[in-house]
Write a structure and sequence with these properties.
This protein is an alpha+beta fold. It contains ten helices and six strands; from the N terminus they run H-H-H-E-E-E-H-E-E-E-H-H-H-H-H-H. The protein is globular.
Length: about 230
């Protein structure tokens, strides 16, 4: 059973930490695991093959490096010291991503900010930033949880917009009243949210290897969990 940490305890602890990168990052990541109720790397993978710190990775163009944290099929994660340039950390991950089996997310972080870069093909892949203050909100916690459990939720802008639009036109204006069949009904109405490409959603879902209805349900359930913050509670 993974240990748990409240958002308030996590934020209070890390807001005052001034340790250097090497002294802080592993404990920071372990605390993130506690915050989302996820097993730590050693607990989940005793052999260090699919979820581990310091994962060896060949660099694009030659040479060897290490990703600070790697979870196969989910993310590569690179840390920098407090207030460091996280763009440099992202460039490091781009050098490693082939060796990391092209994970869906490339995450860079110091102890105050987490920047999530989706790594999907045929996508705009707009990054998402989480601050310590964001982690005190339900929406911020859901995004953090998505890194560990459902990375696809961080690259579903079109489907998210469609589902939210379905909620807005319900008499109750509540996502609690939205079902997969509600979304599918509006899906067929090409005049409804005409700017949202159904074809792009279908293409992306096919890449995931997930049936469309299951994918809609996954995204819908995640949005229902933060409906109040979206004004659709």
């Amino acid at each position: 059973m993974p240990f748990t940490l409240t958002p308030q305890t996590f934020v209070a602890k890390w807001r005052k930490v001034t340790l250097k990168e090497s002294a802080a990052t592993k404990e920071h990541f372990l605390d993130l695991c506690g915050l989302v109720g996820h097993p730590t790397p050693a607990a989940a993978d005793a052999e260090g093959t699919h979820f581990t710190f310091e994962y060896g990775a060949a660099k694009l163009g030659g040479g060897q490096g290490f990703a600070d944290v790697f979870k196969r099929g989910f993310f590569g994660w690179e840390y920098k010291g407090k207030h460091a340039n996280l763009d440099k950390a992202y460039l490091q991950l781009l050098q490693y991503r082939a060796a990391l089996h092209n994970p869906p997310l490339l995450v860079v972080s110091d102890i105050e900010t987490i920047v999530i870069h989706p790594n999907f093909v045929n996508r705009a892949n707009t990054p998402t930033t989480l601050t310590l203050d964001d982690l005190l909100t339900p929406a911020g916690l859901e995004r953090l949880r998505a890194i560990f459990y459902h990375p696809a939720l961080l690259a579903v802008d079109e489907l998210t917009g469609l589902i939210m639009a379905v909620g807005y036109v319900r008499p109750s204006k509540s996502l609690a009243d939205v079902e997969v069949r509600s979304v599918r009904k509006k899906w067929k109405d090409k005049a409804f949210t005409a700017a949202i490409s159904r074809q792009e959603i279908e293409h992306y879902t096919a890449e995931l290897g997930e049936p469309l209805d299951e994918h809609i349900q996954t995204v819908l359930s995640a949005l229902q969990g933060i409906a109040a913050d979206l004004g659709l509670g």
